[in-house]
Amino acid sequence: MYMSRITSNHIQSPLNYTGGKYKLLPQILPLFPQDINSFVDVFCGGGNVGVNINCQQVIFNDIDKNVVGLLKLFKNVPINKLICDIMNIINEYGLSLVFEHGYEYYNCSSSAGLGNYNKQSFFKLREYFNALKRKDKKYYTYLYVLIIYAFNNQIRFNSKGEYNLPVGKRDFNGDMQTKLKKFVARLQEKECSFISRDFRYFSSQRLTPQDFLYADPPYLITCATYNEQGGWTDDLERTLHLYLDDLHAHHIRFALSNVLTSKGKVNNILQDWLNNNPQYVCHHLNYDYSNSSYQTHDRVNGSDEVLITNY
Ligand SMILES: C[S@@+](CC[C@H](N)C(=O)[O-])C[C@H]1O[C@@H](n2cnc3c(N)ncnc32)[C@H](O)[C@@H]1O
């Protein structure tokens, strides 16, 4: 039996992931079971949740191969080597490093950011990256550097498979380096494996009642890059509910993150599923991530952020 312990200093993903659950960890982790053998983070995204669970092993899964490739890079490359590889790319392309030289050196200010200075180098780097053929460590290291210097540190590829975000305002600053170092250290001390599969093909047969599956899918009624072009649909939402019902039938514990309402929209599919399954528990969380006070949900204007559990 392995104890899931909640630590006060949660680790944050170095991928600034839309829908990342870092800020909600203090609310959701206490609702997880204390005894977890395998923890399945089946929509792992930036890995904010899986990395903070103490258990025998964490299985990180996401349909996005690039995200899983980045997590594998963080797991497998020693941190000094990774930082060195990142710095080499930054130097090779002449990108800024404000933590070493300050803003004036680049003729930029903190408020306006570094976009003007980095623009041309960023485009050259992006062009080089988009021409890479093999998805190996080099590919993911270059991708991570692009993310560092990209608009809002986001990941977005167009339909031709090209990374297509513009340059951002920031660079590899102290904050980002600390986040990366802490995340890599925690991931490297963990027993974990990585899978990139649609959740529908993630076999639950190997799971036992000692295991735990956490599902943090794209939210049906909100927008995110990974939900563009019909990435998440009513059908997938219903299929996920059937998948979770099946886990319940096999006595496997799960927790599902979602929003029941957001900006006047209601997720009726989720509400109906809850109405039809009184055995599931719906925990209402603080809807406003940036607000540290635990407000009650606001069904009209705010988001009713929930964690649904079968235990
Ligand atoms: C809300 S995000 C997860 C955020 C993550 N929990 C974190 O804290 O960083 C949802 C993720 O689901 C993934 N996803 C979308 N459709 C999927 C599918 N059919 N199967 C598995 N993963 C999927 C997206 O790529 C995205 O990374």
Task: Please name the defining characteristics of this protein.
311 residues; alpha/beta; 9 helices; globular; binds S-adenosylmethionine
Can you describe what's shown?
The structure is a single chain. The chain has 311 residues and is α/β, with parallel strands linked by helices. The chain is 33% helix and 13% strand. It is built from nine helices and eight strands. Strands 1, 2, 3, 4, 5, 6, 7 and 8 form an eight-stranded mixed β-sheet that branches. Helix 8 links the parallel strand 4 and strand 5. Helix 2 packs across helix 6, helix 3 packs across helix 6 and helix 5 runs antiparallel to helix 6. The longest helix is centred in the middle third of the chain and has 16 residues. It is globular, with a radius of gyration of 20 Å. The two termini are 18 Å apart. The N terminus is likely disordered. S-adenosylmethionine binds next to loops.
Residue-averaged pLDDT = 92
Number of helices: 9
Largest sheet composition = 8 strands, mixed
Strand fraction equals 5-15%
Binned, the helix content reads: 25-40%
How would you summarize this macromolecular structure in one to three sentences?
The protein has nine helices and eight strands.
